[in-house]
Amino acid sequence: MFLGATGTVTAVGLSAGCQSRSAPPDRDDAPAPTPPVSPTGRYQAGITLPQPAQRNLLAVVADLVDTGPVRPLLAELGEAIRTLTAGTDARLMGLEPGDLTVTIGVGPRLVREVDPALPGAKDLPRFSREQIASRARGGDLLIQICADDALVIPAVAAALLEQAGDRIRERWRQSGVRGSNVPVDHGLAAPRNLFGFVDGIVGPHTRAEQRRHLWLAGPAPVAGGTLAVLRRMDLDLPRFAKLSVAEQEAVFGRRRASGVPLSGGTIASGPNLGAKTPDGRYLVPVDAHARRAHATAVGVGLMLRRSYSIDGPAPGLLFMSFQNDIRTFTNTLTRMDDSDALLEYTTTTASATFLILPGFDGKHPLGSRLFR
């Protein structure tokens, strides 16, 4: 599920996603050291920072075992994140953390225990085209790990799970990789997905857009956080590949090679949903993904989207979106469920939502604002 095809990309910086950081170095030159990413601050790292973002991701979804309050666990995880990203944790076994980021979220059950009225307290509804085992729906804890160096990720995951010990029980995990970047606008780039199309063109890319659509402004316990949705899905690549290029483009509403909307313009242009051919047909078909997921047509804000290609047991996609109102996602997918041509080639096999906790520092441990 690729979700979204409205708005104009206006600036560099601050688009999320795990992507390749740089071009290969010359053979005679040593690769430049990867700049570290601070794990502390107003917001957690791994959503809008770093830029450009890393290539590899691992998402671990777990449940809390009833062995005590969650606050000490989150504080310990936050401290472990600080030592791991600083490269001072022996559990890295000598690996350089580079641009490692770890992002922590808590599920609706834990949020409801604090206050059922808080953002993040609602579970996701069920949608069509789902084949989800009970263990792959929901969860109490999200650990998202991103890094350019794929070797760092399993070492960090092992360290964090060892830190949590028997206080959590893993539900499922999924690793993914981003495709090659395609320039979009003024240095902003987006990767291709397994269907061959540019993915994640639209989103709240400027700081102003992110304040409006991405970050939670209040209440105080969640300010500086955001709401995440995870959806793992199988993709029917053989059936999609049998379509002609023109048929594939009609499914997405954009050109496969360039990412330009079928209504014209540039890759950064929002699709003109009113544009028609001389004989009265819409240039962007009525069931095209670009039309069905169009934020203005749905009547919601923008979501910051990440998509990671996965392989095994079937080719697929790990979709992640970040938004400050869960209706941005649920209303969009409800509208897509009606008649989005793209969903005919997807089957969702895991689904969860999490409140991404506000940022932390030495004075305010991870999770301390919410769990008092």
Classification by helices and strands:
alpha+beta
Task: For the record, give the distance between the C-alpha atoms at the N and C termini, rounded to a whole number.
Answer: 37 Å
Q: Helicity level, as a percent range?
A: 10-25%
Rg on CA atoms, Å: 20 Å
Poorly predicted parts: 4-27
Helix count, DSSP H or I runs of 4 or more residues:
9
Helix-strand topology string: EHEHEHEEEHEHHHHEEHE
Q: Let me know the number of strands.
A: 10
How does the overall form come out from the CA principal axes? globular
User: What fraction strand?
Assistant: 15-25%
Mean pLDDT: 90
Strand arrangement within the widest β-sheet reads 4-1-3-2-10-7-9-8
Sketch the major β-sheet: 8 strands, antiparallel
Report what the structure shows:
By secondary structure, this protein is α+β, with helices and mostly antiparallel strands. The protein has an 8-stranded antiparallel sheet. Strands 5-6 form a two-stranded antiparallel sheet. β5 and β6 form a beta hairpin. α1 packs antiparallel against α3. The longest helix has 17 residues. It is globular. About 6% of the residues have low confidence.
